[in-house]
Amino acid sequence: MSTIGFLGLGIMGSPMAVNLARAGHTVTGWNRSPGRADALVAAGGKEAGSIAEAVRDADVVITMVPASPQVEAVAYGPDGILENARGGALFIDHSSITPRTSVDLAGAAAAKGIRVLDAPVSGGEAGAVEGALSIMVGGERADFDAARPVLDAVGTTVVHCGPHGAGQTVKAANQLIVAVNLQALAEAVVFLEKSGVDLPAALEVLSGGLAGSTVLTRKKDALRTGDFRPGFTLDLHHKDMGIVTDAARTVGAALPVGAAAAQLVASAVARGDGALDHSALLRGVRLLSGEPADRAGQPGSSTTGRGKRAPRQS
Fold this sequence. Notes:
By secondary structure, the chain is of the alpha/beta class. The protein contains 15 helices and 9 strands.
């Protein structure tokens, strides 16, 4: 069992930290905004008042923050991870950031005797709660092998993808696939609605055929009911589509469908839907089809609170 400093107790990070504590690891959590450690403490973990306090005695340091600037903010500087973690510590970054940021971080950490893995995850809030995330890992193979007891506590598909930055590259591809899939699902739902088909029945049979996917399984209730409380926000997916389009440009890969999906995600964010779940792409397709964004009788953003995370039923 490891002593873990876990930084970032948000929608994904909190249940991940809880699962690590339940697996028997000693977990100390820190979050920039206070009041997010209650679930971790209830699971047997501890809350730290600073990054230094969270990481100074840790064998493993984990970050789960929104984007490259936040990773750099917690990693660098006198109050950051690299100045306060002990030599030989293993730094696992579960955030979704640019591959270049991961490569640069690994180099800076190596100078301090700290090993780094970029290990972004997929599966959304439900996967984090269930401990069933897919984890794509970049870094040294020996470090990946050493990290397996920690990674296996939060994920069920854990794969070493190559050197530093490879995990982030695979995550960018993942987000490309998910965005295109969600947009196709949104278009299919509007097509079915306007055709007068029984939507729950249609989604059920589609789930069992070649059109079935994890995205459809996870998101069909939101698509059916219009409840877009976030498991993964459009704001974050917008950030990720920027990463994949920039990385694709760098390597010379054409993404014609991905570019269209990126623009549709950007449109949803510009329209004010950024705090909603990424399945809320459905709202944009309805508007393009001459329909209200929210169907009568569906909660939509008007009752779940656009820009705010609605409380979940316990």
